[in-house]
TrEMBL record:
Name this protein carries in UniProt: Uncharacterized protein
Native source species: Rhizopus microsporus ATCC 52813
Domain of life: Eukaryota
Source lineage: Eukaryota, Fungi, Fungi incertae sedis, Mucoromycota, Mucoromycotina
Length: 145
């Protein structure tokens, strides 16, 4: 927790960031203050995207936001979040494979995970709605024979 002196109505201002809660975030259930700091710090669109999806305080925070936000979260944002989380999982698989000895199985798993990253990146671009109509898109690559 960072303490900053204040010249106004409080003696000092305390700022809680991800580094400040890194030790206490490992204990479950999260205390209310830690859950709130985690909620604002991780900035995930969905409870399912968080590591602490079983925490009751976080569940309450996300349900409250969902009630208040209504339909403001677009389908594009939801699709992008799904793609980002899927890519994170593939990257975890790739990082787990790094220390393993080179075997045929490792090569296959790496190829599958790389294909998964490429696929979700393609989906993210396709569903993001960020296409620029002023620029003609590149044609698909030719088939190799």
């Amino acid at each position: 927790m960072k303490r900053i002196p204040s010249n106004y109505w409080v003696e000092k201002c305390c700022i809680i960031d991800h580094n400040a809660i890194s030790e206490v975030i490992r204990t479950t259930p999260l205390s209310s203050m830690v859950a709130i700091a985690y909620f604002f710090g991780c900035q995930k669109l969905s409870l399912l995207s968080t590591e602490h999806r079983d925490d009751l305080t976080l569940q309450k925070l996300y349900s409250t936001v969902k009630e208040q936000a209504g339909d403001k979260i677009t389908a594009e944002q939801s699709a992008a979040e799904v793609c980002n989380q899927t890519n994170l999982q593939f990257k975890k698989i790739l990082n787990t494979l790094n220390p393993m000895p080179d075997t045929l199985l490792k090569k296959r798993l790496r190829a599958y995970a790389d294909d998964g990253v490429l696929y979700t990146d393609t989906c993210k671009c396709m569903y993001s709605g960020l296409s620029n109509t002023a620029v003609k898109p590149m044609p698909p690559p030719p088939e190799l024979s």
